[in-house]
Design goal:
Elements lengths: L2 H22 L8 H14 L11 H9 L20 H12 L5 H16 L2 H13 L2 H12 L2 H7 L5 H17 L12 H6 L4 H12 L9 H6 L3 H22 L6 H5 L4 H11 L2 H13 L11 H23 L5 H31 L13 H16 L4 H28 L2
Helix pairs in contact: 1-5, 1-7, 2-4, 5-9, 6-7, 6-9, 7-19, 7-20, 9-11, 11-13, 17-19, 18-19
């Protein structure tokens, strides 16, 4: 059977998996979901960008009030996600206008499905990225299957929220960075549409990063990579596309990101933030990042038994050790160079999340890091997991090792869907 059929089947499995969670998770149970939708509605009603101090519509307010599971903290409800860059909300405003005459519950469900469709672009992009790293269609397909099997990823994208677009754009950036590391896989790509979807060049990288900057502030973490790789033209293109948003934030709030926590502590100054680094219990922050990345039950923050997290942590630790040992050995060839690139992306992203943890500590005195944000780099994560398995068991057995890892995620998925989420939501 041609590779494109296997890839198509995996892509379809992603869509079905995401649609399942769109149906399973109740209205407004997705992370900050009503705040994201309030942004979309504000664009429809006013045609201008909202401010975090603007009120939500009466329809959204009544819908949130009527739901048995509620997560808002204060009244009146505000469009607090106005802190986010606008690209995702501009895109979603189109189908929102089409479905505006349907009940809000149906409208939100359809917009969830639309978000899953956007996020599903990660599958062909992950396939192409895996070819750049492994030069093997079979391993590339296993990487895609691994992504499909991750339940926490599905919970993250099966809601109205800009993570779905962030994941797609970040995957494109990762592919472009790998392709600019002396790619030789053009003959392996297969379907021409996949090659066209991931065109290379400085303009493409700049366009992708610019769109990312207009989707989520954590795309700022990609800028040092472009500087170190001397992609100045790409960086200038990105700034030309997305820079205006950060200039607007600075004018309105005095901060680059405009994020509410950043604004809340902006008057404390650099010295206070620096001092807070020593006060944060980083092991607790790391623990929260890991468990909210492996699995957490949406906005209710449901959890599973601790030993289940430990199983995945052990696997991740083994993979990390194998990758670090490989990078420590010489010579540094193309494969190791690309591994170093993926590790640098993860490290820079971790620094950005760590900075947010400091802000959360200063604003709320909480030791926490939102681990689901790391799914923006799910392609890098899946490639590193596959690389660790390859280094651990060798090329002949790597597919068996990937099958084992996929089976672990599937087991977690089935258990949490049936025995955790379904039971909790039926109460």
């Amino acid at each position: 059977m041609p590779t494109r059929w296997y890839l198509g089947a995996i892509w379809l499995a992603f869509l079905v998996h995401g649609a399942f969670y769109c149906h399973l998770i109740p209205l407004w149970e997705g992370f900050d979901e009503w705040g994201h939708y309030a942004f979309v509605e504000y664009l429809r009603l006013h045609g201008t960008l909202p401010l975090p101090s603007d009120d939500v519509t009466e329809e959204i307010h009544d819908s949130v009030e009527s739901e048995p599971i509620r997560h808002e903290e204060v009244e009146p409800l505000k469009v607090f996600e106005a802190q986010q860059p606008p690209l995702y909300y501009w895109i979603l405003s189109v189908p929102n206008r089409i479905f505006i005459h349907t009940p809000i519950s149906i409208r939100v469900h359809r917009l969830r499905l639309f978000s899953v469709l956007i996020a599903s672009l990660v599958i062909p992009l992950a396939y192409l990225a895996a070819l750049e790293l492994f030069y093997s269609r079979a391993i590339a397909l296993s990487v895609c299957a691994l992504i499909v099997s991750m339940p926490a990823l599905m919970i993250d994208i099966s809601r109205i929220g800009n993570e779905s677009l962030s994941i797609a754009i970040a995957s494109w950036i990762i592919l472009l960075l790998l392709r600019q590391s002396q790619s030789v896989t053009g003959r392996l790509v297969g379907p021409p549409i996949l090659a066209a979807a991931a065109f290379s060049g400085g303009s493409a990288l700049g366009l992708a990063l610019g769109l990312g900057l207009l989707t989520k502030a954590y795309f700022l973490a990609f800028i040092p990579v472009l500087l170190l790789r001397r992609r100045i033209y790409s960086l200038l293109v990105a700034i030309a596309i997305g820079g205006w948003w950060y200039w607007r934030n600075f004018r309105l709030t005095g901060t680059l990101t405009g994020e509410v926590t950043d604004v809340a502590v902006s008057k404390l100054g650099f010295a206070a933030k620096l001092a807070a680094i020593g006060k944060v219990h980083w092991l607790r922050v790391l623990d929260s990042a890991v468990w909210t990345h492996i699995w957490t039950g949406a906005w209710s923050f449901l959890t599973v038994r601790s030993w289940m997290y430990r199983v995945f942590e052990v696997v991740f630790l083994i993979v990390a050790i194998m990758v670090v040992l490989a990078l420590a050995r010489r010579p540094i060839g193309r494969f190791k160079g690309k591994l170093a690139l993926l590790c640098s992306l993860e490290a820079l992203f971790a620094l950005g999340i760590s900075y947010q943890s400091v802000l959360i500590f200063l604003a709320k005195n909480i030791m926490f890091a939102p681990g689901w944000y790391f799914y923006a780099l799910v392609v890098a994560e899946a490639l590193l997991l596959a690389s660790g398995m390859l280094l651990l068991v060798g090329r002949k057995r790597v597919l068996l090792a990937m099958g084992f890892l996929i089976a672990l995620f599937v087991a977690l998925d089935v258990y949490t869907a049936i025995f955790v989420l379904a039971r909790f939501y039926k109460r």
